[in-house]
Amino acid sequence: MANDTQITIVGNLTGDVELRFTPNGAAVANFTIASTPRVFERSSGEWKEGETLFLRASVWREAAENVAETLRKGMRVIAQGNLKSRSYETKEGARRTSMELEVLEIGPSLRFASANVNRNQRSGGQQGGNYGNQQQGGFQQQSQAQPNTDPWTQNAGGNYNWNQQGGNDEEIPF
């Protein structure tokens, strides 16, 4: 939505991802991200940690299954999405509001780790250029007769091999 508050958060997962399915079969993954700011104090010459922000997050459909399969407790992640407020009433009748992140994009942080990325085959959906819009079908599938020009594969069209030690001098194709 145009008026949603979009944020990006970097932090660690406080527990393993909880994967559930709605009665209609849609997957939803829920998890909590803990983000603790650190500030260097010149006077003491030390790093000081601020108060930790714990943010509940959810992601839907195929991305939910990918998140549950990939991410584990303690992993450092980068998540981007829409900040939502949810109001509820406690058992005692008190009115409360919590902030939650509706995740649009998420992945492991590569600041202190490395990762191997495997692109999943898209299932269902309509054909034709709906890049990044999961609700409308996603990527258009290539036919088997076309050469593979996907930079995420091990040898994309014979020109790139991103898994080689030391990389290569080719320009990134996107």
TrEMBL record:
Gene3D superfamilies found in the cross-reference section: Nucleic acid-binding proteins
PROSITE patterns reported for this sequence: SSB (PS50935)
Record region (Disordered): 119-174
Summary of subunit composition and partner proteins: Homotetramer.
Transmembrane intervals: none
UniProt GO cellular component terms: nucleoid
Protein's UniProt keywords contain Transcription regulation: no
Keywords carried by this UniProt record: DNA damage, DNA recombination, DNA repair, DNA replication, DNA-binding
PANTHER family the UniProt entry points to: SINGLE-STRANDED DNA-BINDING PROTEIN
InterPro entries: NA-bd_OB-fold, Primosome_PriB/ssb, ssDNA-bd
Lineage: Bacteria, Bacillati, Actinomycetota, Actinomycetes, Micrococcales
Record field: compositional bias (Low complexity): 132-146, 154-167
GO process terms (BP): DNA recombination; DNA repair; DNA replication
GO molecular function: single-stranded DNA binding
Identification of the protein by name: Single-stranded DNA-binding protein
